[in-house]
Amino acid sequence: MATKKIIFSPDAPAPIGPYNQAVMVNETLYVSGQIAFELAASGDIQAETRQVMENIGAILKVAELGFGNVVKATIFVKDLNNFGAINEVYGSFFTADPPARETVEVARLPKDVNVEISVIAVQ
């Protein structure tokens, strides 16, 4: 029987809708898309991406996991011209064996942010 546990970090933004920051099912952690709405208007896509990754790191930590446990990531970006800058910051969080990933350009993201990232991690 699957066990389900809600994961919450006070060091990442609280959900803005009917969802949780993350849910652990058995040994798999599903982290909801993370954003950095406080930095979205700054125009600094690298700072925004760094904050998103730090939010993910805070959630992983509560689940007693780290970036080395991430097996899948999804990046949603408002302007694919920012791919290189996002990729540079994103890549700095994975020192070896980065996860599988897709990057998708979208018309709009919550709170008008420029990037949103979700991950799946395993113990």
Description:
This protein has a single domain, classed as RutC-like (60s Ribosomal Protein L30, Chain: A, 2-Layer Sandwich), CATH 3.30.1330.40. The chain is α+β, with helices and mostly antiparallel strands and 123 residues long. Strand 4, helix 2 (83-91) and strand 5 form a beta-alpha-beta unit. The mean pLDDT is 97. Helix 1 runs parallel beside helix 2. 22% of the residues lie in helices and 30% in strands. Strands 1-2-3-6-4-5 form a six-stranded mixed sheet, covered by helices on one side. The protein is globular. It has helices at 45-62, 83-91; strands at 4-7, 22-25, 28-34, 70-77, 100-105, 115-122.
| Average pLDDT, all residues | 97
Q: Overall 3D geometry?
A: globular
* CATH architecture title: 2-Layer Sandwich
Tell me the domain tally.
1
CATH fold name: 60s Ribosomal Protein L30, Chain: A
Pfam family, one: Ribonuc_L-PSP
Protein name: RidA family protein
Family: Belongs to the RutC family.
InterPro entries: RidA, RutC-like_sf, YjgF/YER057c/UK114
What order do the helices and strands come in, and which of them pair?
Layout: E1 4-7, E2 22-25, E3 28-34, H1 45-62, E4 70-77, H2 83-91, E5 100-105, E6 115-122
Parallel strand pairs: 4-5
Antiparallel strand pairs: 1-2, 2-3, 3-6, 4-6
Helix pairs in contact: 1-2
Task: Describe the structure concisely for a colleague.
This protein is α+β, with helices and mostly antiparallel strands and 123 residues long.
Overview features:
123 residues; alpha+beta; 60s Ribosomal Protein L30, Chain: A; 2 helices; 6 strands; 30% strand; YjgF/YER057c/UK114; RidA; RidA family protein
